[in-house]
């Protein structure tokens, strides 16, 4: 499909620079079989049914933004995928100054060697020493805020908490599964009281999620792979939800993409561990999920293509036009949409 079908004009002032407070006070646009409704995230228990199950991503964002030097040259690196115990693939600012085997000093005693330049311009970075890389990043790294936030206001101390979900448990992501940022213990208690269950899986979100689609046609776009896991017990419980007549509702496109990667044509969810580079565009037949809670996405992005695959391009264009006119807040720290096809 032509990528320009997924374009729309977004006023810059609609981009949220901080999350709602409290988190579940964010607005929520509901699209279902009846129409379009303006609600709030804290209304979610009333928008779902007893027996439904929400699926969250429990990945934890690591401080994956690094600033360093190779000699006199300044080098910036955003880690996006682990390739070994001490090796991370990274998008590098100042990459033209790097050669294979160069040492980059990121400060605080953190050194890495550049190697294996990829076709996409990324570099593999091998971190020196014996300390776990996670500890090195805690010393030298910063939270990897999306560029559309970081370029407007910089990274603040509060982002260390604001950019983690309440489910964050498994370190490895370089971007938050932002739909889950809206959830609070009070909202989870209300959902449980309404008979709505929840499960967790792990998908370590990579920085590739922010890369623009440069191709003119979706068939020519290549997704970056991300590592994920669904254990056997979780898969069994989700299949049981369906067997009882409940719906599986993904919280975030990351949960959705991993669930779809793990599900066969017979709609049974299987255990999964490994990489996925699934790219969902209109025409895709969803097997694992019956709905999605997600934030509002960038024009021409793979994520807007995904929600258009779920609900239809024209319907999503109309919904986003309504959200812009109604002053919904967009992107990672913005408001939510509940999509129930």
TrEMBL record:
Keywords for this protein: Cytoplasm, Glycosyltransferase, Queuosine biosynthesis, S-adenosyl-L-methionine, Transferase
Gene designation per UniProt: queA
Organism this protein belongs to: Sphingomonas aurea
Pathway(s) it belongs to: tRNA modification; tRNA-queuosine biosynthesis
Reactions catalysed: 7-aminomethyl-7-carbaguanosine(34) in tRNA + S-adenosyl-L-methionine = epoxyqueuosine(34) in tRNA + adenine + L-methionine + 2 H(+)
EC number of the protein: 2.4.99.17
Record keyword Mitochondrion present: no
Any Pfam family hit: Queuosine_synth
Function: Transfers and isomerizes the ribose moiety from AdoMet to the 7-aminomethyl group of 7-deazaguanine (preQ1-tRNA) to give epoxyqueuosine (oQ-tRNA).
The keyword S-adenosyl-L-methionine belongs to this UniProt entry's keyword annotation: yes
Top enzyme class: transferase
Alphabetized PANTHER family for the sequence: S-ADENOSYLMETHIONINE:TRNA RIBOSYLTRANSFERASE-ISOMERASE
Subunit structure, interactors included: Monomer.
Protein family according to the UniProt entry: Belongs to the QueA family.
Top-level taxon of the source organism: Bacteria
GO molecular function: S-adenosylmethionine:tRNA ribosyltransferase-isomerase activity
Cellular location(s): Cytoplasm
Protein known as: S-adenosylmethionine:tRNA ribosyltransferase-isomerase
